[in-house]
Write a structure and sequence with these properties.
Radius of gyration: 23 Å
Bound molecules: nicotinamide-adenine-dinucleotide
Number of helices: 15
Helix content: 25-40%
Shape: globular
Strand content: 15-25%
Structural class: alpha/beta
Strand order of the largest sheet: 15-18-19-14-13-21-22
Length: about 475
């Protein structure tokens, strides 16, 4: 099938309902071949200040009740659905995500906005049984959920549309105005989503999208006196650094991982191998829950590895805009070289190269790579690879597999294949992760489920029903006649 393309145009940034040029433009290069996909206007700290103050004004002016917020989000979901193919092409062009996966992300964005609309309608507080103690007799106790006012949002490159929707949708649903900084590599998807929200009727002031550097625009959002809560998705180092800079603020962190997949001999290991072929390598492994560490029971290990290596050999690597492509490029040549270096280091230290390991397609992409039994101090085992690489280790005892899975500073999601209910329960109780998925890969995510990590992987839960709780504060009120 023919490769599709996107017209390279200039994209203004958005401050309080107005599209602006700033005189500073940043080219967005295709991660695949470096051609310019478009240019985005760049903001600075002064523009963040303007956006934050306009957001606070809009919030204080009020007049955007729950039913109107829900209607805007519903309408935005409809528009995102109508514009789905353009959004998918944008994701593929600027993030280098294969078009077939980019289409899935565009469809998921519709879900995220729809679930946000549901939460805008449902969000409520609760009552406290004051008469349960003599001290409270005669009082009514009510818990309100109060928005922070202005939420500062910072998003990563790897899901440039749907993770922006996970930032903006719940924040608006909860009654906050938003100032968002998208990733430098992928500003266009975020600006197109902002246009959708404006077209859907979002009132001026409630959203600004300011592309720019993390060190200036990101830092200005984090430190601005007006942003009461920060919602950040990105790497662990940057995320925890942000939290330490503003200890008095609510800082919600969705960070990285090195997700384990445990395959027991009593489980459906064929399905596990078939899913691993896709979910260790989709978007070239640049997902926070990409399968990185496969742990397989020794009784089925040879057959599992044989099936997985054969499957991986059939993946089509190359141009993300070709609808047949399975695995595209890394986000930058620097990242491609880093991942290749980690693979080479692991092999030099004794890991077995089961497949891949080399650059292909004129050096633009790293071939999907499987490594057997890397040393425990190899980066491919203990760090987040964020590339098309997975390791495979064998185990004989299920408890040992659980310990190996927990041998990580991260803890986002873990997957376990077993037909034994007892083992599934043991995994759920023992694995130190934000999500344990039995008979599913750790890469699974539906947008309404609670999603987030423990340990260095984060401190919050997204999924609109959970994010609205994280983006509101509880205020207790007693009433007495
Ligand atoms: P990154 O940390 O490099 O950048 C994320 C965002 O932070 C970008 O917008 C960047 O410009 C901004 N930033 C950088 N320095 C900053 C600073 N000092 N102050 C404020 N903002 C700053 O991450 P990335 O490379 O874009 O994304 C990949 C990472 O994101 C991976 O670690 C991945 O696991 C993680 N991730 C996590 C989830 C999740 O939901 N848990 C989802 C997707 C990606």
């Amino acid at each position: 099938m023919a490769t599709q393309s996107l017209q390279a145009v200039d994209h203004k940034l958005l401050v309080a309902g107005k599209w602006l040029e700033t005189g500073a433009w940043e080219e967005v290069p295709s991660p695949y071949d470096g051609t310019v996909v478009g240019r985005a206007a760049q903001g600075d700290a002064d523009l963040v200040d303007r956006a934050a103050r306009a957001a606070r004004e809009a919030f204080e002016a009020g007049g955007f009740p729950q039913h109107e917020r829900a209607a805007v989000l519903d309408r935005a979901a409809e528009l995102a659905s109508e514009r789905g193919e353009d959004l998918a092409l944008t994701i593929a062009a600027e993030a280098g995500k294969p078009l077939k996966t980019a289409r899935v992300e565009a469809a998921r964005c519709v879900d995220t906005l729809t679930f946000s609309a549901v939460e805008a309608r449902k969000l409520s507080g609760g009552t406290v049984p004051m008469e349960a103690s003599p001290a409270g007799a005669g009082k009514l106790g009510v818990m309100l959920r109060v928005p922070y006012g202005v939420v500062g949002a910072i998003s990563p490159f790897n899901f440039p549309l749907n993770l922006v929707a996970h930032k903006i949708g719940p924040a608006i649903a909860a009654g906050n105005a938003v100032v968002l900084k998208p990733a430098g590599q992928t500003p266009i998807s975020a600006l197109k989503l902002a246009a959708i929200l404006l077209d859907a009727g979002l009132p001026e002031g409630w959203l600004s999208v300011v592309p720019g550097s993390g060190s200036e625009v990101g830092a200005a959002i984090v430190e601005h006196e007006v942003t009461g809560a920060i919602t950040f998705t990105g790497s662990a180092g940057v995320g925890w650094g942000i939290r330490s800079r503003v200890p008095h603020k609510k800082v919600n962190l969705e960070l990285g991982s090195n997700a384990p997949l445990i395959v027991h001999a009593d489980g459906d290991w064929e399905t596990a191998a078939d899913k691993a072929q896709i979910h260790a390598f989709s978007h070239a492994g640049q997902s926070c829950i990409s399968i990185q560490r496969v742990l397989v029971h020794q009784d089925v290990a040879d057959a599992f590895v044989e099936r997985l290596v054969a499957n991986v050999g059939s993946l089509r690597v190359g141009d993300p805009l070709d609808p047949e492509t399975d695995v595209g490029p890394l986000i930058s040549p620097g990242d491609r070289d880093r991942v290749k270096e980690w693979v080479d280091e692991a092999v030099a230290a004794g890991a077995e190269l089961l497949c891949g390991g080399e650059l292909v397609d004129q050096g633009r992409c790293l071939a999907p790579t499987l490594l057997g039994s890397p040393p425990r101090d190899a980066k491919v085992w203990c760090e987040e690879i964020f590339g098309p690489v997975a390791t495979i280790d064998r185990f004989s005892d299920f408890g040992e597999a659980l310990r190996m899975a927990n041998d990580s500073k991260f803890g986002l999601q873990a997957g376990v294949f077993t037909r034994d209910v007892g083992r599934g329960l043991e995994a759920a109780e023992t694995l130190e992760f934000g999500g344990v998925l039995v008979n599913e890969v750790p890469t699974f995510r539906a947008d309404q489920m609670p999603y987030g990590g423990v340990k260095e992987s984060g401190n919050t839960r997204e999924g609109p029903a959970f994010a609205v709780l994280e983006l509101t504060e509880e205020r207790f009120v007693t009433l007495q006649g």
